[in-house]
Design a protein that fits this description.
It contains 13 helices and seven strands. The protein is an alpha/beta fold and about 290 residues long. Helix 7 links the parallel strand 5 and strand 6.
Length: about 290
Amino acid sequence: MFKTVNKYYGQLVLGPPGAGKTTYCGEMSKLLESVGRKVILINLDPANDCVSYTPTIDIRNLIVLEDVMDQYNLGPNGGLVYCMEYLEKNIDWLLDQIKGENSTNFIFDLPGQVELYSHHDSIHKIFSKLASCVQIQLCVVHLIDSHHCSDAGKFIAALILSLNAMLKIALPHINLLTKVDLLKKHVDKLEFNIDFYTEVLDLNYLLDSLDSDKFTKKYKKLNSALVSIIEDYSLVSFQLVDMFKKQSLINVKNLVDKANGYVFKSDEGRHINSMLACAMGVHDKYDIDVE
């Protein structure tokens, strides 16, 4: 007889500091547990000693940023790079703990230092190794603070960061604009309606704003080149999320389920027509399992 191998599903939660990663991890885990899923929360931020949830696996049991900084006379950025490289070299520590029931959902809370995935290879290597050694299907949830929509330069920077992460990590990717409750209070101050930012429509309209700004107008060629890169790839779009509204989180959960393949589990009775409909964005009763 063949031994049954458990299959897992996971999401890597990335984003700059203050984007709401830890809050997202806590609220998403509560939602998944409320619909009967087994959830394992993993803190991979060696600097995060006051998370709002209780992690099942915590990198601080392996290595602590403060200790690295003291021992090797490193700053916080260099210390985080060291910690990620240390985890990469000691990946068995993580692999030995990735276990659970079939279809367990793993949520990985990662550091907010964007250089770790935009300029460095450790995170990519860690999860490539994880996916090759464990039956786990992964996707990325990349969080961006929605206040970036209020400034053309900041929004272009957020787009470049998101695109870079998508290309560098090379996993199915969901980009979220967080803190939309604050954004909606100031929506009248936005240059364009919210759909312009979520769907990443014609960015040439932003060039007018960049060209009229006293800090960015002298970089017209650079601004145009950045916009051209984003539009040539045509990969980035955003989903709005209010982490304290259940329906908003449900919408994100559905996107994550499609991205990491959970929605296609055989024991959910999926067949080829359902899969095709889901891939085309057609929702059915399986898309929302919470009222």
